Amino acid sequence: MKYIIGIGGVTNGGKTTLTNRIVKALPNCCVVHQDDFFKPQDQIEVGEDGFKQWDVLDSLDMEAMVSTVRAWIENPVKFARSHGVNVTPGSKEPASKDIHILVIEGFLLYNYKPLIDLFDIRYYLAVPYDECKRRRSTRNYTVPDPPGLFDGHVWPMYLKHRKEMEDCGVDVVYLDGLKSRDELYNQVFEDIHNKLLNCL
Asked: Which terminus of the chain has fewer CB atoms gathered within 10 Å of its CB, N or C?
């Protein structure tokens, strides 16, 4: 059985931290990080807001990302091995009973139709403006944030894309990013565990 989990939501919402814990806890689990699909810096356009447009779909090679996910769907064992993930030998049950899990993590997972349809479950981490801005200010990025980027581009794009997602009726499970890391992990792990048991 193949199962695809999305962990999306706001920048600095705790997506990567949660993803890393979930991936370690689940069997035969691979991960795809949306951040690995950013286009080169010289291909990122400057928008009307005066900032390089990092927080939009055009900044990402979404076709390559979907191709990567489809490669996992086609052959999760081969994908896992090529990404250094140990695959637990299957039980004596039919191969269809073997569980293979893919976690896809990123800030714009639910605004690209070819990707939206691939998920079995979609989680969406949210934190309020003040906390998001505080967390963002403590992070060190390869390309540092220019002054005013958060208020002038990052937060407005987050609100825009969240509204688009909600207007399209994308089915997501909202997670409160203000909860402790342990609370979030326990909530999501238990939810996934129960869903997988129901699928068997």
From this structure: C
